[in-house]
Amino acid sequence: MFDTKPYEDKMAQALDHFQDELKKVRTGRAHAGMLDGVMVEVYGARMPLNQVANVTAPEAQMLLVTPFDPSNITAIAAAIRDNQSLGFNPSDDGRVVRVPVPALTEERRKQLVKQVSEKSEEARIAMRTIRQDALKDAKRMKDTKELGEDDFKRVEKEVDSLMSDIQKRIEELFKTKEKDVLTI
């Protein structure tokens, strides 16, 4: 009997990865997840920002980073400033780091939509690869007579059904994020 569960899990992981990638795309409004990829050099090691500070978004155009240890404040501000993909210019007052989030220009919004589109295409490619692996394994089992013709067709339908459900979900997420980015 062919088990589609491992492939369902792989598809779910790929969908989760896609959702995480979408969170990294800026929409013009500040949210704490924008600084998730920032690594800070503290105590002689590189650590994720969320392990050395608390990140909040008190208003739509501002992030507030409160370090757990105030002696790390300059390292945190430098790490945020040095991350070129973010394009932020933080300022610190000795206790907290304020990160103003600039409003997006129309051109930048279009670039972000293109970036989101590329990420959704990468997710679709990952899904197709997982589908091909599942069908290849099912075909191999059919060729070695571990799986009958009817069972193979059932597996094929099951995988295709799962695939179309996840493709719809990817499209919904893309449309939602596109609307989010283009909303001023």
From TrEMBL:
Main location: cytoplasm
Protein name: Ribosome-recycling factor
Annotated function: Responsible for the release of ribosomes from messenger RNA at the termination of protein biosynthesis. May increase the efficiency of translation by recycling ribosomes from one round of translation to another.
Segments forming domain Ribosome recycling factor: 18-182
Gene3D superfamilies (alphabetical): 3.30.1360.40, Ribosome-recycling factor
NCBIfam families per record: frr
Subcellular location: Cytoplasm
PANTHER family cross-referenced by the UniProt entry: MITOCHONDRIAL RIBOSOME RECYCLING FACTOR PSEUDO 1 (PTHR20982:SF3), RIBOSOME RECYCLING FACTOR (PTHR20982)
Keywords assigned: Cytoplasm, Protein biosynthesis
Molecular-function GO terms, alphabetical: ribosomal large subunit binding
Annotated Pfam families: RRF
Tree of life domain: Bacteria
Keyword Protein biosynthesis in record: yes
GO biological process, one term: translational termination
Upper classification of the organism: Bacteria, Candidatus Saccharimonadota, Candidatus Saccharimonadia, Candidatus Nanosynbacterales, Candidatus Nanosynbacteraceae
Species assigned in the record: Candidatus Nanosynbacter featherlites
Keyword Lipid metabolism (UniProt): no
Family the entry assigns: Belongs to the RRF family.
